[in-house]
Specification:
This protein is an alpha+beta fold. It is built from 7 helices and 16 strands. Its EC number is 1.14.11.18.
């Protein structure tokens, strides 16, 4: 029997046992265990994830791995971020965002003026995060061997200015993506320092990845909402939620349909994290016209046309432009 066949047989043995014997809590977060045998839909077997880890992701839609990225790498990413904030480098395609509550304040050429870097695929140092071998081996467990890095961000959540604008509304990442299938997309989100409830850690609704893509729009918040921060219009506010408190280098992988967001940063420091959304290279683009994603398509197209001063830029074009192959072969995307 081959190694993979033997591993599959071992895993199926776990699935055939009574639910009470299945231990599915590989993270520090105590969550639900499966109540019935599960079909493995959301993960793949590449001889990395344990049966317990696969079951946990199947049931909850996320998986937290401790100490995955080294302090040395985190320091280098932080240094590059600060260089960008000081305008020492000019990165093509990079979007520098500011919190709506401080957008009209006096510009300061350092991290206090920047709440997020988006689309850093042309920055060799920051993009190195997306190709870290220890990240990719986990990504392969969810999307397969041919991997595209599709969306990159470095989040610098600022201290809340009193308007609660440092919050990120509850949302599903698939709302922003015109490619499918959803089950072959995953986000890797790495804490660049201690992340807790005080400085606005991620909040997830376990199990919501098994649902459908919901309608999103800007929430009606008194202090305003940051650009592109759409929120789920209708979800159960009583759904159990988990606050993902993490240490520097910890990385959480999560499904694009998982409903998640983050709270206010109630400290005086900046909460930093770096992330990349990956997709299987054989994913395919879809037409979102007539769907709940039409509003984000229009907004992205308007931004792209202003930025590149070219008419006829499509939603798919914006994603094809920033997608980068990081492992295997580029197929459809």
């Amino acid at each position: 029997m081959s190694r993979s066949a033997g591993r599959l047989k071992h895993l199926m043995g776990h699935l055939d046992r009574p639910p009470a014997t299945i231990r599915a809590s590989p993270t520090s977060v105590g969550l639900s265990t499966p109540t019935q045998p599960l079909k493995l839909r959301y993960s793949l077997d590449n001889n990395l994830l344990s049966p317990e880890q696969r079951l946990f992701y199947e049931e909850n839609g996320f998986l937290l791995i401790k100490n995955l990225v080294s302090p040395e790498d985190i320091d280098k990413f932080r240094q590059e971020f600060e260089r960008i904030c000081r305008r020492e480098v000019d990165i093509p395609g990079l979007i520098v965002m500011r919190d709506v509550a401080i957008a009209k304040s006096e510009f300061v050429p350092d991290q206090r003026a920047v709440s997020k870097l988006q689309d850093f695929q042309e920055d060799p140092e920051l993009f190195r995060f997306c190709a870290l071998p220890q990240i990719l081996k986990y990504v392969e467990s969810f999307v397969g061997p041919n991997i595209m890095a599709m969306h990159t961000m470095l989040i610098n959540k600022p201290p809340d200015a009193g308007k609660k604008t440092s919050r990120h509304p509850m949302h599903q990442d698939l709302h922003y993506f015109p490619f499918r299938p959803a089950d072959r997309i995953v986000c890797a989100w790495t804490a660049m320092e201690t992340v807790n409830r005080q400085n606005g850690c991620l909040v997830v609704l376990p199990g919501t990845h098994t649902g459908t893509l919901k309608e999103h729009e800007y929430p009606e918040w008194e202090g305003g909402v940051n650009k592109m921060y759409h929120g789920v219009r209708d979800y159960n506010p009583d759904h159990p939620r988990v606050h993902l408190e993490m240490e520097r280098g910890d990385t959480v992988f999560f499904h694009p349909l998982l409903i998640h967001g983050s709270g206010m940063n109630q400290t005086q420091g900046f909460r930093k994290a770096i992330s990349c959304h990956y997709a299987a290279a054989d994913c395919y683009y879809i037409d979102v016209k007539g769907t709940t994603q039409e509003n984000i398509e229009q907004e992205v197209n308007e931004i792209a046309q202003k930025k590149f001063r070219v008419d006829g830029v499509t939603f798919q074009d914006t994603w094809a432009f920033r997608g980068r192959l990081v492992q295997g072969n580029r197929i459809s995307l």
